[in-house]
Structures are given as C-alpha cells and as structure tokens.
C-alpha cells in the first residue's frame, strides 16, 4: 500500500482505525509506505509556513488534524502488526531529495517517511 500526504488531514483515531484495517486486509510480508507530520521542534520559518498552510487548508474545509511524535507513530504501527523497515527523518529526506538543488527548494514542514512490513 502507498498512503501518502493524507494522515495530517485525519484524526488520530481515524489514522489508527485505517492502519488496523490495512493490517487486517494484508498478508504477512506486505509492505506499506506512508508519510506523516511529525511533532518536533520547529524553526520560526517552519512555524510561519505551518500557520499559512493551516489557514489555507482550513479555508478549503480540510484542516490539518494530526501530528505525531515519531516514537508514538512507531508504537502505533507495531501495535497494529507492522514492523519498521525504514523511518526516514527530515534530514534523511533532505539529503535524498533536496540536497544540491539549484533552485534551493526545501520542505516547508517536518514530515517523516516510513516503510513498514506486515508481520506474521
């Protein structure tokens, strides 16, 4: 499964319910890739960007609803039956996708990328 750019718009209970549903539908060894907004210390620039983003998405009727501490999200995945294959941090993602760009583009908000595998 690929579940990208959706979790921040869901409540924590909806995220948990969806992960349980995915775990119940998948065979052992199935993989899930997802990203989520993480609760980590923010720079002033990130705070300003998030405030702007929140206003924009709230105005369209889809407000941001959740952010997760990385340890809590890992624990949730484990609880529903997934093991972490990769948990890429903001730095990992910056190095992988943004470092060396001529246009200076960088992510505006901290987010993590996880690849997880359904256990037996």
Describe the fold and architecture.
The relative contact order is 0.24. The protein has helices spanning 12-25, 44-59, 70-80, 90-98, and strands spanning 2-3, 31-37, 82-88, 111-118. The model has no long low-confidence stretch (mean pLDDT 91). Helix 1 links the parallel strand 1 (2-3) and strand 2 (31-37). It starts with a strand and ends with a strand. With 120 residues, it is of the alpha+beta class. The longest helix is centred in the middle third of the chain and has 16 residues, at 44-59.
Please outline the major beta sheet: 4 strands, mixed
Number of helices: 4
- The residue-averaged pLDDT reads 91
SSE topology string: EHEHHEHE
- Poorly predicted residue ranges: none
Amount of beta strand: 15-25%
Give the CA-based shape: globular
Number of E-state strands? 4
Radius of gyration: 15 Å
What is the structural class? alpha+beta
Q: What's the end-to-end separation, in Å?
A: 17 Å
The main sheet orders its strands as 1-2-4-3
Portion of residues in helices? 40-55%
């Amino acid at each position: 499964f690929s579940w990208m750019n959706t979790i921040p718009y869901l409540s924590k209970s909806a995220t948990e319910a969806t992960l349980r549903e995915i775990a119940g539908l998948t065979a052992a060894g199935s993989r899930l890739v997802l990203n989520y907004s993480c609760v980590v210390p923010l720079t002033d620039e990130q705070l300003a960007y998030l405030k702007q983003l929140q206003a924009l998405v709230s105005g369209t009727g889809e407000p941001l609803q959740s952010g997760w501490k990385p340890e809590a999200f890992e624990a949730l995945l484990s609880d529903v039956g997934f093991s972490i294959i990769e948990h890429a941090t903001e730095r990992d993602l910056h190095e992988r996708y943004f470092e060396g760009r001529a246009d200076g583009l960088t992510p505006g908000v901290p987010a993590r990328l996880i690849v997880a595998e359904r256990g037996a």
